Amino acid sequence: MKQSQIFTPLKNSDSAWLDIRGVRYHVRQWGDSSMPLLVMLHGWGDTGGAFQFTVDELKHDWFVVAPDWRGFGLSYLRTDSYWFPDYVNDLQQLLEHYQPDAPVNLLGHSMGANIAGLYAGIFPERVRAFVNVEGFGLADSEPSKAPQTYRRWIEESARPPRYASYGSFDELALRIQVRSPSLSRERALFIARQWAEQSADGRVVLRADPAHKLPNATQYRRAEAEACWDQVTAPVLLVMGADTDFKAGMKSWLDDDQSRHPFHGAETEIIEAAGHMVHFEAPAALASVTEAFLKTAV
Predict the structure, then answer these.
(1) Integer Cα distance of 173 and 118 in angstroms
(2) Please, are residues 36 and 28 in contact by the beta-carbon 8 Å criterion?
(3) Is there a contact between 25 and 75 (Cβ–Cβ < 8 Å)?
């Protein structure tokens, strides 16, 4: 297969390495550290470097930092289980490193937005503004299913999962384009190289701990998430792709009835021609609504 040309970033980045709670965290950084801080938090299976397209579209000078969550990207970790509270604590330590004395601007996508939403309610004084991109929690779980949930986790933990491997980065890029068909081949190949590496046998393997594929041992308790969201004092912008694969019920939160929003009084933006991976598929639109929101957030 002919090798495709890789997308060339407009803005250069560098890597920082932080020791956070026993994990050697990799953090992608763009811009001058003297500029206002904007923290970008990726979703499940993604990496911080995948925000490159959105960063390229920012019109103002920012110091953007985007960590690879534990067990993803270059934040290498192999363990039996991942627990959501660990991500919230990791975020606290990250922010204490980058901006301990002032509230921060957060942009989170999917899982990263759910982490940021909890954090913004647990430590409301630490968040200046929050852009929530497709991170509105899950449907509530059924308590009666707890026994089956625990059993499934235990039984599947005994059979360690694996991710698929690929014959080339081009092959992985094609898979990415299936999920995000509006993404150019060059950009899909760039994402593929953020997500994966070539192993000793020549196969392309994802930079992610397969333990992430295990089911959660505990069920999602939406009431607990909403209790955290109720404590958020920072301005919140809810962003969703018009073509997202979220359920219709979740889309209904982004209507004119503010009482239905998962965050009180939140502003809303729906990005046209974008699915769930808004930062891939419509980076210019996401950058535009983000900067307009952050400019007015007080």
Answers:
(1) 33
(2) no
(3) yes
